[in-house]
Input
Amino acid sequence: MPSRTAWRCGAGLLLVLFILPVLMGRHPAHRLGAMGVGAILAFIPLVFYMGIPRLIDRYDPEPWWCLALALVWGALAACGFAAAINTVVLWALTQGLSAADAQGVTACVCAPFVEEFWKGLGVFGVFYFLRREFDGVVDGVIYATFTALGFAAIENVTYYATAELAHHGSMLAGTFLIRGVLAPWGHPLYTSMTGLGFGLSRETTKPWLRWAAPFIGYLAAVFLHSLWNTAALMSGMLFLLMLPLWLLFVAAFLGILIWLVARKGKIIRDHLKDEVLLGFLSAAELDLVASPVGRFKAGMSHGALGREFVAAATRLGLSKWHTARAMRGQKRTVSADWIVPLRTELTDLRGRIVATIGKPLVAGPGPQVWQPPRR
Output
């Protein structure tokens, strides 16, 4: 991830811009109370929002600590840097434009470029510094989603607190409806484009695409972000206009996630088919591993050992995928060194499951080495 200095600077800017003005202004207790209300409304739904990408990423779930790093980067560093730059740009624009025009340019032009850059930097941190935890496009979208959810949560605290300070219940309810119900997947959708770019960069063997994909993804994120902000500004958040756009954004985001997960399942199946012929997996075990609910089914029927078996088989398929990509690019990868140990682990886990649970993981014949038919 980016250096500790960047984390500290971003968090410090967030403190200076959002906390100190509250403590040093008039009626600090009242303002802190409003921020407390904002935090409750922002963070409680966040727990639910974080569960959705975790439910979808069933084949090879990312480590919780990597997701936590992405979430905190978005909440502290990205939000702090973006807020500081947007504030400076807004002040500069007010020197030559009306307040309304300056806010419009900042929201529709500056904010998309700035916010998507700093959120995307968190995705780049995982991509570059935690390479073993970043396999491809699915991982890029998942890390982008967590970074964006952290960013959106802190941003929502300020919007909800402002509405609470207005002493107008309908304003707070309306703000929560728009930002917490209608548009919670806005930021994840935008930043997912950057995540897709980095994921494609990880997967491709074409040098030009390896460099161009993250930049193209970033520009797509900026475009979608600007599209939403511009539509909201021009319509005055008109419900009849924003609802169809929101439905389109949600459908696009969920569609992308479902397609990517189905794609990952196909990749795993394709790279484990020869394990059936080699006798390290049975056909029924392959069907279980390649299923998006395979880990859940194995856990329900055989507990932790069942989940470990599916996880090991998944890692084996992905390791072979990484190795094949590296060979096409005439490179070496440490994934090649994991193939034999993972096969051994599968054999060991299969024996432990029968010895501990008393029945195999799946019904039917066990793994058998393929033999050519006799003439």
In short: The mean pLDDT is 86. DSSP finds twelve helices and no strands in the chain. The longest helix spans residues 239-278. The CA atoms of residues 299 and 307 lie 5 Å apart.
